[in-house]
Amino acid sequence: MNEIATGLLSFIHTSTSPFHTVRTGAAMLAAAGFCELSLHEPWTLTRGGAYYIRFFDSTLLAFTLGDHPRDHLRIAAAHTDFPALRIKPQATLHTPDYDTLNVEIYGGLMRESWLDRPLSFAGKVVLQGEQVFTPQVQLIDYKKPVFIIPRLAIHLNRKVNDGLPLNPQKDMLPLLSLSDEKPSSFTDFLAAYMQIEPSRLLAYDLTVYPCEEGCLLGMHQELLSAPRLDNLTSAYACLMGMIDSHPADGLNMIALFDNEEVGSRTKQGAASQALPRILHSIYRTLQYTEEEYRCDMADAFLLSVDVAHALHPNIPEKCDPSHRPVMGNGPALKTACSQAYVGDAEALGMIKGLCRKYQIPHQHFVNRNDVPGGSTLGSILSAGLSVRGLDVGIPILAMHSARETMGIADQERLQQLLTCYFQDRNQ
After folding, report:
1. Where are the domains of the chain?
2. Distance CA 294, CA 307 (A)
3. Closest CA to 402 of 114, 3, 46
4. CA 172 to chain centre
5. How far is CA 186 from its chain centroid?
6. Which of 64, 82, 158, 418 is 20 to 30 Å apart from 128, CA to CA?
7. What are 173-217's pLDDT values in tens digits?
């Protein structure tokens, strides 16, 4: 269990932006013997091989080929992004007293949870190069605390404990520095950190993140508290399931997409053509026909891996009366007749059967009728590929907070489920 926790916490600590999630995942795959493929060059694939591809630096696909690639086609998908603050291009707001950072809200974050926390930033910086269409790109992670969003004291807002509405343009701006006679500039600060001339900075995609590290807690160290559990728990489980199951027969694939938190409809999101293009390229490179591709897709399966809502210890009435996932009791199999979660009776039966076969504890999650809940990328991918699938994930507390909580045993069982999913032969 300590090894599982150490691995997950290390992954979360280094995955401070979607770009860093992909870089960390790619390093894990490379260390396990996976070969990187370029989208700009023809491919040569061999049976028994293991490969990965990056899309626009924030989406990562990986796959393995068995000796009989058409034995089965199984896909597991998760996402690399998380609710956060993103720094606007003109970032510094100067007043005679303070400088603040102009940010925009990415995804459905719980605003109040970000107050009074030490914040840092990470992401991609684009620098001027020799050619206009080939600028230089660097990933950076400042790592140290540099920003904070201060609360208003209770003495100045006596109703603060009655609820705290926060205007995203007024109340969510991090404090950058104290003003002086010479206005400070975030771009100057960034250039100094990168040791470059400010004139070389063309653009950036920078995420503000809470820089407090994750930790174990609970009387028996059975709980884990950390930022970004949604959805780095799932991304890590997909990576470990792919690595631990290799070599396995069939065609197994993981797809870790960016932009799930804002709808997935981007060039690197689950609604893009990234996954269908890769699948077609694999079949063409292996000299399979379009008819063989169609036949295999008819029997393919998709696991959409994203966190679920755990039963809350203080507010249990928010759960459906007969579907109450508890942290530590295994991953939740999620269904919704609205198809906000992908699945049907056969899909649910297949994954329940897999869990029973390998003795993996599991639970069932369905929303209350009067609580709509959320959605994820499973239905988008399933519709685009026309494949059967099911949503699964670890039950957590405080989803979309700056810091979330999970049961560490659930991570072990989710990774076991992913490994067995890829290894099990359809015989």
Report:
1. 2-82+228-423, 84-210
2. 31
3. 114
4. 23
5. 27
6. 82
7. 999 999 876 667 999 999 999 999 999 999 999 999 999 999 999
Q: Could you tell me which CATH number the domain at 2-82+228-423 has?
A: 3.40.630.10
Residue with token string 């026909």: 289
Q: Dihedrals φ, ψ of 128, to 5°? A: -65, 130
DSSP state of 135: E
Please state the length of the chain. 427
SS3 (DSSP) at 151: coil
Asked whether the beta carbons of 258 and 275 are under 8 A apart, the reply is no
- Residue 427, pLDDT > 70, answer no
Q: Give me the torsion for CA of 229, 370, 386, 18, rounded to 10°.
A: -20
**What integer pLDDT is reported at residue 95 of this predicted model?**
87
Q: Angle at CA 251, nearest 5°, toward 248 and 253?
A: 100
- Kindly tell me the burial class for residue 335, based on how many C-beta atoms sit within 10 Å of its own C-beta (0-12, 13-18, 19 or more): buried
End-to-end CA distance of the chain: 32
Distance of CA 346 to the CA centre of its chain: 27
What are the beta bridge partners of residue 392?
305, 333
Q: Give the Cα separation of 375 and 367 in Å (integer).
A: 11
Cα–Cα distance between 23 and 14 in angstroms, integer?
9
Neighbours of 20 (CB within 10 A): 23
Picking from 247, 250, 268, 249, the residue whose alpha carbon sits closest to that of residue 259 is: 268
Q: What is the pLDDT of residues 101-117, one digit of tens each?
A: 999 999 999 999 999 99
Instruction: State the residue for tokens 């370029």.
Output: 38
Tens digits of per-residue pLDDT, 285-334? 999 999 999 999 999 999 999 999 999 999 999 999 999 999 999 999 99
Residue type, 330: G
- Pick the closest to residue 210 from 140, 147, 102, 120 (CA basis): 120
Query: At residue 171, what is the residue type?
Result: D
Tokens of 39: 């989208």
**Would residue 178 be called left, alpha or beta, if left means φ above 0 and alpha means ψ between -120 and 50 degrees?**
beta
Query: Can you name the CATH fold of 84-210?
Result: Aminopeptidase i, Domain 2 (2.30.250)
